[in-house]
Amino acid sequence: MPRKPVAACQDWISHAKTADGIERIEAWFQGNAYAMHRHDTYAIGRTLAGVQSFNYRRGRRDSLPGNTIVLHPDEPHDGQAGTGEGFRYRMIYIEPALFQDALGGCALPFLDGGVTNDPRLAAATETLLQGIGHTLEPLEQSDALAELAHALAAVAGQPRVRGKGDYLAARRAREYLNANFTRTVALDELEMITGRDRWSLSHDFRTYYGTSPYRYLTMRRLDAVRRMALSGVPLAIAAADTGFADQSHMTRHFVKTFGQTPGHWLQVVSAVRRA
């Protein structure tokens, strides 16, 4: 169903139907949208209207309608309107593990600039950045992700060679963290199930998944908090049930990751639901 109109003065975020490994949104903001934050996914998007401005890798970037935005995992960035008219955009957040399925253990592709006009990336993102009312079929999503992974590698000028590290160890660690994110995971547990010492494993994990094991664990907790909050679970209970020490501990990580407090995030997400 098409998104219902929302009053122009009200910020909003609308989410597409959930799909494994990706999150798709469309949003409109006026003024400051996000404080400086970072997440463990690729954030790839397109500006639809206005000027979308953000600070990224030592400089300010301005994305105009039609530009493609590519933000690498764990790279700090913020977000705000570049003019008084506000901005509208679509974004897809992609787990690096999905790109690894296509790249087969190569180091993750990296683009430095944050904003690009490269026609290869514009074409490769067309399917994934459709209107959020469009539900991607599983094969459609898989093909589009593979196309995007290879386009990113090509634009980055990355040779198709395997990364220097133990990909299987990193994958085992990721699977273990997915299964145990609601509790404290000890370093010796990861060393035992991967056969790697903690320093080598940290390097492996960053090479293949773009972030550290602890950041990955924290993100899985925050993903669960968002799902629970949207279903009406109080934030204090959601924090406790997902392994955080308390609500304030969860809130600190939430702001660092999404650039908004949990309460404000719920407000802008709910703006579309109320419309």
UniProtKB/TrEMBL annotation:
The keyword Transcription regulation applies. Residues 171-268 form the HTH araC/xylS-type domain. It holds the Pfam family HTH_18. SMART domains: HTH_ARAC. Signal peptide: none annotated. GO terms for molecular function: DNA-binding transcription factor activity; sequence-specific DNA binding. The keyword Mitochondrion does not apply. This is AraC family transcriptional regulator. Keywords: DNA-binding, Transcription, Transcription regulation. It comes from Trinickia dabaoshanensis. It comes from the Bacteria.
